[in-house]
UniProtKB/TrEMBL annotation:
Signal peptide: 1-24
Annotated ranges, domain MurNAc-LAA: 380-492
Keyword Signal belongs to the record: yes
Classification via CDD domains: MurNAc-LAA (cd02696)
Listed name of the protein: LytC
Entry annotated with the keyword Acetylation: no
Entry keywords, A to Z: Signal
InterPro entries, A to Z: Bact_Sporulation_Assoc, Cell_wall-bd_2, MurNAc-LAA_cat
Short name of any one Pfam family annotated for the protein: CW_binding_2
């Protein structure tokens, strides 16, 4: 790295030893059975040792489950599923374990057959059915069963994503969920609004879900919309204002798990968020980071919500915004040696680090992703604009003496001195281990980007491009990939 360009006067205060963190990862628990029926029973048992009354809906009748969820919360009872034609074995055992005496079936016989109802009755359990001729009518029946509310949520009954995201909010406020289609107010819903004395309606979803023409026909309407189901669940979680010290996470495309997750979350006064089943969605990460969430329960087995998502939730870096600044760029090549341009080395490592951190659950932001140039002041401003939790500047070193070699990490004492030191101490040994380079330690220096960035900040000197030893290492893709993995691990350790 070009010495005069990169810094204010440098003050070397010696090497600081790394002290490994003894703190723990985030807490992640999984509640998942072999089937949706088993998962619902396991979820119920998280909050109910006994349940004299239980709601049962058809295992694929998701609109019925969405409509029933606020009723389950209001009556303080769990929600279970069954197969259409026969009472599912897992659900039958659940009713026995919960010592259930009364069942409310939500949905008509196309969802839960008369035969299934009779099987429940043969267990000595009384049965009441709330059902209409359509999903609209069934939702209206459920709303009528709830206590009076002057506000109702209106959701497109054919857009399950909107309904799933609504559950915790609707239930926590004791608002019924009523259904419509995208452009026409169904007669059952219109009658429910009139008969229940609904004076305010909250429309869930954008204009593709419920048109403006229909919206304007509703009493005193307001709308909550979002760019996707994950964003919608985040917005509604904020409105519900449930606790976030412990949070429920479900796959936003697995309706059965998400319905019971919403019921369980609101029962315990805890937020419920939707995510992608294979990779934690950006919107969910953002809310986790904003609320500094540390404890989670995922609903569903690994085929529903992957072990990768569970690992991301467990990683202390989840939801953290990490600003990655690959030094130099464009006309400023930085240090040169043995066929290497520092700007290219920095960008390659920065991109790999970006990928590793995103895979770990973080929200990385890069100052540059191509061969472009920003001034030092612009880099600092970009980090501040990103509201980064930490700032990492990636560089390679240079010296007139080609025997100089090794890896070192710098921090500055102007802002966040203790945390910057901690960050440096966590990253430095990981870099040395990954590259097999000489350990030059952790040092202080007034490099501009770490002196003026107000979040914990470090500048990494990965190796000397002017060294035949280090330059050979920095030419190897496998080594740079290991380095990025090591830096990512160091960042995760810092957040423990």
């Amino acid at each position: 790295m070009k010495f005069l360009f990169k810094c204010l006067p440098v003050f070397l205060l010696g090497v600081i030893l790394f002290v490994p963190s003894a703190l723990a990862d985030n807490s992640v628990k999984r509640v998942g059975g072999n089937t949706r029926y088993d998962t619902a029973v396991l979820a119920a048992k998280q909050s109910w040792k006994e349940a004299k009354t239980v709601i049962i809906v058809g295992g694929s009748a998701y609109p019925d489950g969405i409509a029933a969820a606020p009723l389950a919360y209001q009556k303080n009872i769990p929600l279970l599923y069954t197969n259409k034609h026969n009472l599912s074995a897992g659900t039958k055992k659940g009713l026995i374990d919960l010592k259930t005496k009364n069942v409310i079936i939500v949905g008509g016989t196309p969802a839960v057959s008369k035969n299934t109802e009779n099987q429940i009755k043969k267990m000595g359990i009384s049965v009441k059915r709330l059902a209409g001729s359509s999903r609209y009518a069934t939702a209206a029946k459920v709303a009528n069963e709830m206590g009076r509310s002057t506000t109702a949520l209106v959701v497109n009954g054919f857009v399950n994503a909107d309904g799933l995201a609504s559950i915790s909010y609707a239930a926590s406020k004791k608002y019924p969920i009523l259904f419509t289609n995208d452009s026409t107010l169904n007669g059952s819903t219109a009658n429910a609004i009139k008969n229940l004395g609904i004076k305010n309606t909250i429309v869930i979803g954008g204009t593709k879900s419920i048109s403006n023409a229909l919206y304007n026909k509703l009493p005193n309407p307001s709308r909550v919309s979002a760019k996707n189901r994950y964003d919608l669940s985040m917005k509604l979680a904020k409105k519900a204002n449930l606790g976030t010290s412990y949070t429920y996470i479900t796959n936003g495309f697995k309706e059965a798990d998400s319905i019971v997750g919403g019921v369980l979350g609101v029962k315990q006064g805890r937020a419920h968020l939707l995510t992608n089943g294979n990779n934690l969605s950006k919107e969910t990460r953002t809310y986790i980071g904003d609320k500094n969430m540390k404890s989670f329960t995922v609903i569903g087995k690994a085929s529903s919500l992957s072990d990768n998502v569970a690992s991301q939730l467990k990683n202390p870096v989840v939801g953290k915004t990490v600003f990655i600044d690959p030094g130099h760029g464009d006309q400023d090549s930085g240090a040169t040696g043995y066929g290497l341009l520092e700007k290219n080395v920095n960008l390659d490592i920065g991109k790999r680090l970006n990928s590793k951190l995103y895979s770990a659950g973080a929200l990385p932001v890069m100052s540059r992703t191509g061969d472009t140039f920003d001034s030092l002041e612009e880099r600092v401003k970009k980090g501040a604009k990103a509201k980064a939790d930490i700032f990492i500047s990636v560089h390679a070193n240079a010296n007139d003496n080609n025997s100089a070699n090794g890896t070192e990490t710098y921090y500055d004492k102007t802002y966040q001195s203790a945390n910057s030191l901690k960050l440096a101490q966590n990253i430095q040994p990981q870099m040395v281990s990954a590259l097999g380079t000489r350990d030059r330690g952790v040092k202080t220096a007034g490099f501009y980007v770490i002196k003026y960035s107000q979040m914990p900040s470090v500048l990494l000197e990965t190796g000397f491009v002017t060294s035949p030893i280090d330059s050979n290492i920095l030419k190897q893709s496998a080594k740079k990939d290991r380095l990025a993995t090591g830096i990512s691990k160091g960042v995760s350790s810092y957040f423990k």
